[in-house]
């Protein structure tokens, strides 16, 4: 069985990210699960990984371009994995050690300077400690972390594959 081409693999990565975002919006709009700051940060990294894969699919680069897009994808998955890991850590804290709940996302974006707003988003707060959804005993950030690991390995594989010069 032949391996999928680099281009088709990029399309698959973009479609996987689109599926992850579709489920995130379904969870928010249909299931009523409102995303916390760390959830929003994870969404950013999923979109970033998907956008890089989609651009690589459309661009269809050769040699070093393939490696560049894949390396950027690896970096984005590591960033997303760090945020998902932090989210899991906050969820695992004893109740007395959970950070205080912060203001709403709208308030943060409307009042804080961009740099401060990003720090609040990536740091998380007490809202992030609440586990409102589980599947097979794992919370949503655990599944997102698993997705980032898979996406990261796929990008790493893309980066290490032999390409035409």
Task: Note the topology.
Elements: H1 6-29, H2 37-59, H3 64-92, H4 105-111, H5 114-123, E1 134-135, E2 138-139, H6 140-160
Antiparallel strand pairs: 1-2
Mean pLDDT over the full residue set: 85
Helix coverage percent of residues? 55-70%
Order of helices and strands: HHHHHEEH
Shape: elongated
Determine the number of helices (DSSP H or I, runs of at least 4 residues): 6
> Order of strands in the sheet with the most strands?
1-2
Biggest pleated sheet: 2 strands, antiparallel
Straight-line N-to-C gap: 24 Å
Beta-strand percentage range: under 5%
Number of strands: 2
Identify low-pLDDT runs. none
From the alpha-carbon coordinates, what is the Rg to the nearest angstrom? Answer: 17 Å
Structural class: mainly alpha
Q: Would you kindly provide a written description of the structure presented here, covering whatever features stand out?
A:
- This protein is an all-alpha fold and 165 residues long.
- The chain is built from six helices and two strands, in the order αααααββα.
- Helix 1 packs antiparallel against helix 2 (37-59), helix 1 (6-29) runs antiparallel to helix 6 (140-160) and helix 4 (105-111) packs antiparallel against helix 5.
- The mean pLDDT is 85.
């Amino acid at each position: 069985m032949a391996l999928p081409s680099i281009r088709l693999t990029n399309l698959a990565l973009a479609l996987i990210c689109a599926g992850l975002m579709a489920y995130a919006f379904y969870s928010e709009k249909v299931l009523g699960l409102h995303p916390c700051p760390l959830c929003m940060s994870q969404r950013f990294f999923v979109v970033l990984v998907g956008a890089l894969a989609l651009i690589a699919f459309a661009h269809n680069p050769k040699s070093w371009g393939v490696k560049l897009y894949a390396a950027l994808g690896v970096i984005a998955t590591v960033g997303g994995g760090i945020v998902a890991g932090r989210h899991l850590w906050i969820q695992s804290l004893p109740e007395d050690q959970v950070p205080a709940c912060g203001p709403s996302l709208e308030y943060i974006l409307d009042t804080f300077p961009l740099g401060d707003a990003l720090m609040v988003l990536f740091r998380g707060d007490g809202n992030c400690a609440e586990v409102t959804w589980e599947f097979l005993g794992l919370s949503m950030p655990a599944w997102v972390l698993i997705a980032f690991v898979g996406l990261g390995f796929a990008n790493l594989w893309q980066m290490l594959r032999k390409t035409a010069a």
